[in-house]
Specification:
Length: 214
């Protein structure tokens, strides 16, 4: 199990690191700074970085406050929600709009497919510490809400919007806000599903029959 945890932690860290290198490669100091701000303006990057930190901290600093937090059922349900939305939105809405090649294909695959699937598998295998409380679904909404506010503020100041469905310059505020509300409902629904699964998982584990010994 530890080898599995190390593997997925390494993969989760590789995705954002590779993508950042590709974004700032061959840029000037000024343009690299701009690209860096844009890098941290993608929900995909933020959700993957959060997952990478949550997977790595318990391995390298298991007694730290962040590691303890990251292993709790509520935060694990929240991170699973973010990665699920990241993967679903990309594959349903964005994947058809570009065709990455080479290392870009690799980083794209890690960020949108491998890390989300690996994290969900880890949640299924290990669950989370402590009881999964329904309030965790509400708390999970804070991160995407802050991201939405940041995107609108940053976009108004710079003209940069990370996703076409959040591009106020092209769509206008009413459609974008409506999309954000719809996505908030999706986040809430998925978060509730993961909380439910983490509430049910310990009960199912306890009910599994003991293996018959020879």
């Amino acid at each position: 199990m530890r080898a599995w945890r190390i593997l997925i932690a390494v993969v989760a860290c590789l995705g954002p690191a590779l993508q950042y290198g590709l974004m700032v490669y061959d840029e000037t100091l000024v343009s690299a700074a701009v690209k860096s701000v844009e890098f941290f303006s993608y929900f995909t990057i933020l959700s993957n970085m959060l997952a990478a930190a949550a997977l790595t901290a318990p391995l390298v600093a298991p007694t730290s406050r962040f590691a303890t937090w990251a292993e709790q059922s509520g935060p694990r349900a929240a991170i699973a929600t973010y990665l699920t939305i990241t993967a679903v939105v990309y594959h349903l809405l964005l994947a058809s709009q570009w065709n990455p090649q080479g290392l870009r294909f690799v980083s794209n695959l890690i960020l949108h497919t491998i890390t989300p699937l690996a994290y969900l598998a880890d949640v299924a295998l290990r669950g989370g510490h402590g009881a999964a409380r329904w309030i965790a679904a509400a708390k999970a909404m804070a991160f995407p809400a802050l991201f939405g506010v940041w995107t609108l503020v940053h976009g108004a100041l710079s003209g940069f919007y990370p996703y076409p469905f959040m591009n106020v310059a092209k769509r206008g505020y009413p459609p974008v806000v409506l999309t954000m509300v719809e996505m908030s409902l999706a986040f809430a629904a998925v978060a509730l599903i993961f909380v439910l699964l983490l509430r049910v998982r310990p009960k199912v584990a306890r009910e599994e029959p003991e293996p018959i010994s020879a």
